[in-house]
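Section 3.1: Structural characterization of target chains.
Under the original work plan, the team committed to producing a structural model for every single-chain target entering the pipeline before any wet-lab resources were allocated. The record below documents one such target. The sequence was received from the expression subgroup and is listed exactly as submitted; it comprises 635 residues.
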Amino acid sequence: MTNRRSIQRILLNIGLDIVAATVAVPLAGWITGTAALSGQVWAAGVVSLLLASIPFRLPSQYWRFTGLSDLASVVGAAVLAALIFAAGLATNPAMHDGARLALGFGLCLLALLAAPRIFYRLLQGRKRRAGDELKTILLVGDGEGADLFLRALAAERAPSLRVRGLLTLGARQTGRRIQGTPILGTVGEAASILDALAAEGETQACLVLTGADLPADELAALLDVADAREIPVRRAPRPTTLQSAGAGPAQPLELQPLVIADLLDRAQVPLDRDGMARMIQGRRVLVTGAGGTIGSELARQVATLGPSQLILLDNGEYALWQIDLELGETRPEIPRQALIADVRDGPRIRDIFERLRPEQVFHAAALKHVPMVEANPMEGMLTNATGTLNVADAARAVGAMAMVFISTDKAVNPSSLMGASKRLAEMYCQALDIAGHTGGAGALRCVTVRFGNVLGSTGSVVPLFRRQLARGGPLTVTHPDMQRYFMTVREAVGLVLQASVLALGGAALPGGRDGGIFVLDMGPPVKIVDLARRMIRLAGLVPDRDVDIRFTGLRPGEKLFEELFHGREPPVPTGHPGLLMAAPRTADPAIVGRAIEEIGAACRAGQTHLAMEMLGRLVPEFDHNPGGEAASARR
């Protein structure tokens, strides 16, 4: 059916072009004052066009999507047809004004070929769906993104959107036009522009972002302006989608909702990809917690760097199967093994390391959900502290080059068992790193990287809010003043790898040879209640009207404000954007190691209080908040 319709359209195009050539011949004769034209001259004009149209593919042109390239083909075909026509007339001794007639024929043919194509394109561009109301939108952004969107919209058979104008980042473009659409002003002038349009009786259906270059603070301000006027904000489809839409028949453009990551977007930090490749390429790499949010992203990014073998380790079968299946589809050339193992099981971890002898270890396995660890303290201490000791000792025993330990901001002045157990693990890794430097070549380098919440990770607040929104609310927030640091998982893992490159590459880092902890620059903290309100608005709803926000009180172990640095470990610049270093607090690895083993033994014996007492002595800044009361929360 499709082929038949295509053939019919091609035949129709040929017929219309023949009509144009047939009309062009007498019209050229009338313009040039040439004597009465014979049937042979008419036939020569038609044949000339048919021959000229072949190399320029005129019959296959889609008139509704006529563009500059199509018009260029029309010009070329008209010129070539005029030359062929002139050559044919030269063989006729009765034609004395052949050159002049051929020139007139070419000009008339060009007009008769181009005019209907342009007219049809304009006519189709003004068509609207019968019975549909046009949605008036404002585009936010300039340059290629806006141009692609306007072209794709013009290519629709019956567009339902009408672009009233554009808002740009700079004031210099105001008053100019893109694809005939006026630039009304800047993003900062959005409020006054929307009010002026409303006063004229024009109500905007939505604002549409056409690029990814709008800073997060300006986007937040724009959302506030739109929220106050109950105008939704959407994002244009991806550029690849717009390019394909503008090239031919397309489905109606589907505007995309914003995601919360758009509001936390920061300037892209340059990463040393070559250094990462040198660190990973050709080496055996093991990732613990490979099924988790951080571990799986580490596995993905490591796989792109060409390891000789990638070992995925996790104690959850389904999560491990998922990342193993994904890498099998996306990176089948990378040899890999998926191993079910618990980092608390020392003999099992040692056996794996002795058999596979990894050279680089990324330790992401942990229990990270504060209330869950409070409810299961022995499991938390065994996993976060003893598990880290097991992995680090096994890596050191087989001569691994480095172990990268993923820590958390909750390890700073911890009020939870999760944070305190991670701080104890930090202490052991710091001590091993110092010992590794003093031990000479071949000693294990133990790199610790600390950061806050990963946006959208398992157990984080964003998926919780999404589930609550899907049920119609309410959204539950523990306290109106609670703040947290956030970053995307891809950004966090990229900086983890960058920190590893700096630590292992011999860079001159302050504190880098004394067990310093890398701390990712998380940007300013975000109030959770603001995050909840923003997610409600991004869903096209109004907070406290369509969806309620309910405050439930601090949970066990929680603080109002998380920190990235302890008072005794002031931040030190590393010279690389996005990375800071916490000045180290040193300890003896043998002492810390024995203490972790004693805590592990107490946990296995069911002596929870004894284990917690020992943890409190080892981490003196641990101020446990088991009740979750707000009075004990502090910065």
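Confidence is low (pLDDT under 50) at residues 128-132, 245-249, 630-635.
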